[in-house]
Structure formats: C-alpha cells, structure tokens
C-alpha cells in the first residue's frame, strides 16, 4: 500500500487550517482537550442521524456517519461553515480513500444547526488535487516544524500555549 494511504482525515483538515498544527498533530503532540465546542460537536453527533452507523473507522480515516443503501453514503457533521475548505477536502479525501479500495460512495457535509447539507462529489481534478495535498502533507511532516504565525483562530487552538507562551 502506498504511504499516502496512512494519512488521517484530520491531517488533511489541519493542512487547510494551519501547517504548524498539522506538523504538531502528525508528531503525536496532542493537546486537544474537551472544549465546549468539542462537547457540542459530540452531542450533535449523538442526537442527529440516530439510526446510522457513527464514527466508523476504516484504516486511518474516521467517518462521522455511514449510511448503507444502494450506494454507500458518508456524512461529515460540522457545527458551522467556517473553515469550509478544510471540511470539503477532508471529505474528498475520504471518497478518494474509499475509491482506492474499489468502494464507490457519495458524501454529504451536514450542518444540523443551520439545517444545511452540501453534496460532495470526487472529480478527476479533485483526485489530482488530493494527490498533491497528500504529497505536500508528507513533505511538511518530514521537514522541521513550520514557524507558528499568529492568526485569529490561534486563540481557540489547543496548541496556543505551545506556540505563543
Ligand atoms: S496556535 Fe495558531 S499557529 Fe499554533 S498550531 Fe494553533 S492555529 Fe497553528
């Protein structure tokens, strides 16, 4: 199996949020705690889509909800549309990963609080982009830690003390 298939969905997500966060997480430096936002996310997961399989782990990927029908449907549940690119590429990576194992699936990103869904399809262009992202992630992980750059999101990041204390 090629090395790219060991990359976690969270790493693809962090690639879009912060390269320092991606590097720290990838080197097993985890400081994520149960913030109110994380607790709210878990509650939404429990209360929505009660009849489906939840938090399904397939190798390095952990899918929020899997619905088995004529075609497999995967669902990512998010609280808000902030950081939308990170969710979209994380979900595209799941579709890419499943396709590598011969599994065709469709994907939906749900925002229960907004009662909104976005359907995600994996195009050939997306596959090329995902391959580039995975190669770049490997390059970042195998290089020295990217220097932290302060942005608004840092204030809510679990690594804040690590980066700026
Ligand atoms: S505190 Fe800011 S720079 Fe540091 S990992 Fe978090 S988001 Fe990145």
Describe it.
Keywords: Antiviral defense, Exonuclease, Hydrolase, Iron, Iron-sulfur, Manganese, Metal-binding, Nuclease. GO terms for molecular function: exonuclease activity; iron-sulfur cluster binding; metal ion binding. The chain has a single domain (3-164), classed as Lambda Exonuclease, Chain A (Alpha-Beta Complex). The chain is built from six helices and five strands; from the N terminus they run H-H-H-E-E-E-H-E-E-H-H. It has helices at 9-17, 19-26, 36-47, 84-100, 124-141, 160-164; strands at 53-58, 61-67, 72-77, 105-111, 116-120. The chain has a five-stranded mixed beta sheet with strand order 1-2-3-4-5. Helix 1 runs antiparallel to helix 4 (84-100). The radius of gyration is 16 Å and the shape is globular. The chain starts with 8 loop residues before the first helix and ends with a helix. The structure holds iron/sulfur cluster (SF4). Iron/sulfur cluster binds at residues 18, 20-21, 148-149, 153-154, 157, 159-160, 163.
